[in-house]
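Whiteboard transcription, Tuesday session. T.W. wrote the structure tokens on the left side:
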């Protein structure tokens, strides 16, 4: 069984744009290689938004060198990027955006959701890319809830497999390196064992309820970062719980990050800043 490396609790809320009140549950700045290939996870909400004619969100900004994975629990989002992708995602849907060589995009509350108002709750995970794939063309996978298979855990609850495999079910997301991403709903008192190979990173996050893993109790918005040594993870719910499990093969390369750019060297960061400034990551075209 993997042992605990670190517990993270009490993340301070901050705003991303005017649409996303987030708490950063973990980041590579603090946890380093122990969380590779993951870089960071922001948990937005749950937060109630009053009806508004003007959608809230975050305007045009760039990314290069990694992927952003957005999982919506409540509310609806709209997205548009300079690679020509446009989409809307709602509860249970996942957007897996590969920035790779670079793009600019904007992320808003969906217009109809804004008009109605309501609760927004989502996570955005940043996944690193190996050096050889940082120059790949940008990509975009819109994964509706209907494409994500659910594994029935009997009385224990259920597991939606977004990426990787779990009990013979494969997640629909295509990934550059081996990644497992599972959205778990566990009933109080139930327990699940998640395979996690020796040497792989493993992270357990409780979004709702209470659960134990590696001998520690996690409440809402608490995260357990496990030691890559050892095999397998056990999670036991103390209350009905919504839990996110992340596992992955570490990328053993230097990480040099600057805001929306995650590269391997300082020079690559300087190049990214120049390329964005000079319009080489593209521009958003106004909708027709
Ligand atoms: Mn973004």
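and on the right, the sequence the group agreed on:
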């Amino acid at each position: 069984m993997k042992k605990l490396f670190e517990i993270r609790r009490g993340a301070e809320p901050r705003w991303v744009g005017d649409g996303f009140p987030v708490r950063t549950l973990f980041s590579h700045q603090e946890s380093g290689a122990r969380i590779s290939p993951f870089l960071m996870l922001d948990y937005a909400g749950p937060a109630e938004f009053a009806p508004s004619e003007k959608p809230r969100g975050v305007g045009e900004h760039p990314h290069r060198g990694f992927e952003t994975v957005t999982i919506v629990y409540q509310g609806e989002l709209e997205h548009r990027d300079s690679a020509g992708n446009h989409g809307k995602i709602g509860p249970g849907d996942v957007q897996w955006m590969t920035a790779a060589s670079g793009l600019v995009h904007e992320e808003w509350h969906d217009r109809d959701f804004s008009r109605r108002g309501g609760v927004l709750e989502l996570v955005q995970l940043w996944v690193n890319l190996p050096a050889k794939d940082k120059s790949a063309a940008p990509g975009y996978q819109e994964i509706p809830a209907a494409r994500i298979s659910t594994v029935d855990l009997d009385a224990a609850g259920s597991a939606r497999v977004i990426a990787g495999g779990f009990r013979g079910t494969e997640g629909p997301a295509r990934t550059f390196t081996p990644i497992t991403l599972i959205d778990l709903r566990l009933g109080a008192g139930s327990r699940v064992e998640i395979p996690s190979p020796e040497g792989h990173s493993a992270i357990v996050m409780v979004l709702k309820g209470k659960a134990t893993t590696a001998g520690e109790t996690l409440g809402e918005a608490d995260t357990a970062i496990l030691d890559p040594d050892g095999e397998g993870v056990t999670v036991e719910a103390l209350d009905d719980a919504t839990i996110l499990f992340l596992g992955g093969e570490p990328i053993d390369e230097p990480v040099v990050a600057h805001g929306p750019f995650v590269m391997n060297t300082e020079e690559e960061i300087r190049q990214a800043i120049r390329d964005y400034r000079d319009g080489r990551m593209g521009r958003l075209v106004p909708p027709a």
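Someone added at the bottom: The chain is about 10% helix and 50% strand.
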